[in-house]
Amino acid sequence: MGLRQQALIVVPVIISALAGAFGVLGYFMEIAFGMPSRLGMPPALRGVGVVMLTLGFLFMGWLFRYRKPAEIIASTYVTM
Question: The pTM is what?
Answer without folding.
Answer: 0.52
